[in-house]
Amino acid sequence: MERNTVTPEEEILRQRLDKLGRLREEEGYDPYVHETWDVKQSLNQIRAEHDDIEVDQHKKDVPLSVAGRLMTVRKQGKASFANVQDETGSMQLYFQLDAMGEEGYRFFKKWIDAGDIVGIEGHPFRTKRGELTIAVTRCVLLCKAIRPLPEKWHGLTDMEVRYRKRYVDLIANPEVRDVFRQRAKIISSVRKTLEDHGTLEVDTPILSYLAGGANARPFVTHHNALDLDMYLRIATELHLKRLVVGMMGRVYEMGKNFRNEGMDAMHNPEFTAMEVYWPYCDYNDMMDLTEEIIRKAAVDATGSTTVNWQGTELDLAKPFRRISMVDLVKEHCGVDFDAIETDAQARSIAEGEGLAVEGNESKFKVLLMMIEEFVEKKLVQPTFVMGHPTEISPLSKRDPEKPDYTHRFELFVCGSEVANGFSELNDPIDQRARFEDQARLKAEGDDESHPFDEDFINAIEQGLPPTGGLGIGIDRLIMFLTDSRSIRDVILFPTMKPKA
Predict the structure, then answer these.
(1) Which of 68, 158, 370, 390 has the fewest CB atoms within 10 Å, i.e. is most exposed?
(2) 410 marked ligand binding residue
(3) How is the subunit organization of this protein annotated in UniProt (predicted)?
(4) How many folded domains does the chain comprise?
(5) Residue 204 φ/ψ, nearest 5 degrees
(6) Of 334, 353, 333, 350, nearest to 342 (Cα)?
(7) The CATH number of the domain where 230 resides is what?
(8) Residue range 2-25: average pLDDT?
(9) What is the pLDDT of residues 68-85, one digit of tens each?
(10) How remote is the C-alpha of 324 from its chain's centroid?
(11) Degrees (nearest 5) of the Cα angle 141, 146, 151?
């Protein structure tokens, strides 16, 4: 005997398809032909406008016309209840034979199920139990849902399913919709702050023959007509700085970048970033701008400069701490890199701290290793980490007093990088030399080294004015401002491995 392998969802799907066929055959009714419904109120609007209704009071002189998805249906004899949800909220519905007429009530009871999308006409009243409700006079089936609501309408909790079927997640978990509404507010706020400073939004290529502007591994594709390998962009920096050369003034771009790297709670291969470049400014101006953007976004999205992320209270009103990498390692590890004279000394200290070294690391590479291993996770409140070594900052201007370091910063919050910025390198001779160093590293097997971009050097040979640049990881910023645990919680359709 063969074992029945039909799942409960598949059985409900079969039943719904059968009901759809009978609906069309017996009633001559097609639930997919409706093109419009005159929605006159949202459910939240009804709550706001009729919250004063008293218990057992009907407002029959207030006509309502709403539309939404039935989340629950409790069919009884001559009176039934349901819960309808639209994009703003939910509300109870009361179906009654006398109010709807025999034919209307019969159609509701026989053909309409939880998950269906309906148009509702009626009036507001408050039940004896005190719940604001719509007394239904007309119910029109606008779309038949073939698949059932998740987990028998008690919510969707499996994170893997929620990410793969975001459309179901949004139906089952209204708080998820709220996160993405906050996301929209944050993005709008960032744009407004930049535009209030006279910054022009521009678009630059997503496909390019070089993947520059950051040290990261790109996605590779092939252009058939040109017979040319091309790359999805990893950053917008080099094109935006070309626009500053071209006298476009203050410019910014917000859009998708792509990095062929690992995935975890803070990383998705496709992510949203914002980069901005202001001529005649430096990295101090960019740190000031970063604080302003984040504070205003917090207020616009949450109403406060104090936010809570996974149990940690973040105070965004206070000036963000600014401290160099060298001083941070001295503070947390007791090691003074200014006193280290050779690479071998640095590697010896690293080994003493338990770090694995290969034997060819410079002292500046060791400094970065110690920051990543011992310091970053301790940077909870917003902190600007400054003074990055020149050898890991190929596009940053040198510190004239300490030329082995740059005028660069990274902003860390709760142990994760949120922003990166610097005074832009505008010396074409120095830029060429740094690109050559990066090309050497790439030839030695470093896939994330910056490619040599001759056209970019040509551009800054035309003259790039002193410029401050800033990049913000928009998804991570949204995570912290919406108390979201994972970057996948703030990306509508995160990257997922297909099911086998």
Answers:
(1) 158
(2) yes
(3) Homodimer.
(4) 2
(5) -125, 165
(6) 350
(7) 3.30.930.10
(8) 87
(9) 999 999 999 999 999 999
(10) 29
(11) 110
